[in-house]
Amino acid sequence: MPKNIFTRDRSLPLNRKHKIAIAGVGALGAAAVALTAVPASGQTTTTSEAAPTAKVAYSTQQIQDVQAGVTGQLASASQKVAAIEAKQEAAAKKETAAKKAAAKKAAAKREAKQSTSRSAARTEVKKSYPNNLDGWIREARAIMKKHGIPGSYEGIHRNIMRESSGNPMAINDWDINAINGIPSKGLLQVIPPTFEAYHVAGTSKNIYDPVANIVAACNYAADKYGTMDNVDSAY
């Protein structure tokens, strides 16, 4: 049987290694005794029992509150966005209405101005062109100017005096045109077909109307002779 390391054979001398081993074992034994002998009060004790596991309680209440809070914030944000959009839409409608009102007002103002101008023009015509030969020629020349029809006051007056002596109701019932059933009529003795062909828009369609008769005759003379000024006889 092997010998106990703590029992040595006295017949064998102890060397240095034996002494160190014995001293180490003795120190370990003393430490073990000291640990078991520590008093309970104020000192750390060792135990083999495990600490009880703490119980954890779970609840959905906090999560529900968080969800409710987020939902409320989203709803509030949506309401703010809707309010902003409503304000923008209202502002746009207001601006559009203001523009329409301004355009309508401007149109009414232009129409009133144009109406006034037309009324003034009509008044001016009545005041500027008396109902006589002088007035008829001047009014006819104003219309001719707008349509680019040439003819001087003197050339028109000269031909009127030769053709009708200034009588707007004059009619020729003896020349070839009369024989053919289309007598010459008016201040410048124009036959009906010529009057209709050279009638100028805006003037009367009555061949005996002095202004309409002058303008149509001058329009015809411009086409055939270059201008009424070039006419010195029946044309």
Automatic annotation (TrEMBL):
InterPro entries: Lysozyme-like_dom_sf, Transglycosylase_SLT_dom_1
Alphabetically ordered keywords of this record: Signal
Superkingdom field: Bacteria
Name of one Pfam family that matches: SLT
Ranges for domain Transglycosylase SLT: 160-230
Protein name: Transglycosylase SLT domain-containing protein
Organism: Streptomyces plicatus
Signal peptide range: 1-42
Chain segments carrying region Disordered: 102-125
Keyword Cytoplasm: no
